[in-house]
Amino acid sequence: MSLRRIDLRFALPHEVRRAAAIGLEDWSTGLEEAGVELSAASDLDLAVAPVERANEVLGLGARAVVLEGRGGAGKLRNAGYAPSRYLPLPTIETPDLLLPLEHGEPVRYALSTWRPAETWPKQVRNRALAALARLAPDPRPLQALGLREAGPPATLAAAARYDVPADAGWFLTLGQGDNLTRAVFHVFAPGSPNPGWVVKTARVRGYDEPFAKDEAGLALVQAAGGAALRHAPRLLGRLEVEGRHASVESAAVGERLSTLLARDRTHGGEAFADIAAWVSDVGEQTVTAGALDDEVGRLEREVLPSWNASPRLLSSLGGLPAVLQHNDLGTWNAVWAAPGEFTVLDWESARGNGLPLWDLLYFSVDALGVLDGARTAEQRAHHAVRLLRGELPASQTLFETIRRYVSELEIPAESVGPLATLCWLHHGLSHVKRGETLGAEAQVPPAERIAPIWLEDPLLGPGWDRWRG
Fold first, then answer.
1. pLDDT tens digits, residue range 195-214?
2. What is the pLDDT of residue 266?
3. Residue 114 DSSP code
4. Domain of 330: which CATH number?
5. Do 434 and 293 have their domain in common?
6. How far apart are CA 66 and CA 49, in angstroms?
7. Same domain, yes or no, for 244 and 313?
8. Tens digits of per-residue pLDDT, 378-433?
9. Do 206 and 142 sit in the same domain of this protein?
């Protein structure tokens, strides 16, 4: 299961080593997965229960208590704890957003800017919730946290060395992935309507790989300068909190592109054009001749054998320039505020000398799918194949975008099909590698489902020319 179920633990000013969970099996399982000792003895760092069993859990005398359900804050206050209320969205069982309701500006920003609802009635509801965050009675099942000794979250306290204020407001995004997906604090200076920092934290102890890769990727951005640097966050520092790795970056201000494309076709179209043009700009500014040897060698060793693909597929790459490649440019990794104002996030997969066209193709297929209303992984994978075959109205948008990129970077037309093939074969193995790191089967995202169809479909494959119009 995902550790998102227990991520309220990151709001505590101390680490959780020993805990008790009464009547909440998901919490018990999650805490065990996180390496927390479950005990009913004294000296507990945390105790958790539904509000109906408040008397039992309060009797344990833990340093911190979580009560789930309505009215938990009052019971905690009566028992001598300093209470605060949290709203997990979309549900208390599977949250991907955690809102501290006492933090008015962060809640407002989260619901009106970062992730506004897709429909008008839900937007009105969210505005009302944001406006009444401090005053409203519990509108739905909440998580109430009580502390014997109040203080900021331990991760944010540690981030003070990078000028994160001790009294900062925040909300927490939890992602929708597996246990290796990082939780992210969006941090606000007191009184500020917009975040100034993000603090990323690993869910499990000892896992530093994405932080080291982020640092390396953002160093490539720094070296490239220009368009890449203008639209990327700045790494302010790395830290470790009780064995959990974390990092501090400058915050991206605006709406997640994945949400914008789904709810607003007009502004979504503007954002798509903005970022597609940016990919071309980055390519033009970072072209490096004769620098693809390492990447070609990697593809020959690690990618082609997994698909029984011929090394001849690489023969058309001779003479192509290398470019700075983000290498995970999905809609989940971009934030857009207004024309020309956007930030591309999470550079942990970046390559300084990557293949051209990959970022544009990966981004365009994902973004146009969301823009066309494809929501589930199956719908988006099906949409991607039809889009690439030229069967959808959006196909012409894709093909025009590719033609413009190919012209600007002077890529030979005969190289486009092989470049696209290598793109999908590479991404088609990402979930396999993640599963090996996770030690369990990983989810298969939409883009990673394209490769098998691409190799078999006569309209696709290395000879793909539908993009020519």
1. 999 999 999 899 999 999 99
2. 95
3. I
4. 3.90.1200
5. yes
6. 7
7. no
8. 999 999 999 999 999 999 999 999 999 999 999 999 999 999 999 999 999 976 66
9. yes
Residues 296 and 166 both lie in one domain? no
DSSP assigned state of 387: H
Backbone angles phi, psi at 77, to 5 degrees: -60, -45
Which phi and psi (to 5°) does residue 307 adopt?
-115, 5
Give which of 230, 261, 271 is closest to 115, Cα–Cα. 261
Nearest residue to 12 (alpha-carbon basis) of 110, 158, 126, 222: 158
- Check: CB of residue 202 under 8 Å from CB of residue 182: yes
Using DSSP's 3-state secondary structure scheme, residue 48 falls into strand
Burial of 91: CB neighbours in 10 Å, binned 0-12, 13-18, 19+: exposed
Residue with token string 């502390």: 147
- Number of structural domains, the chain? 2
Domain around 427: 255-468
Find the radius of gyration of the CA atoms of the chain. Answer: 24
User: Which two three-digit tokens encode residue 86?
Assistant: 């949290």
- Domain identity same for 163 and 289: no
- Is the domain of 288 the same as that of 140? no
3-class SS of residue 346: coil
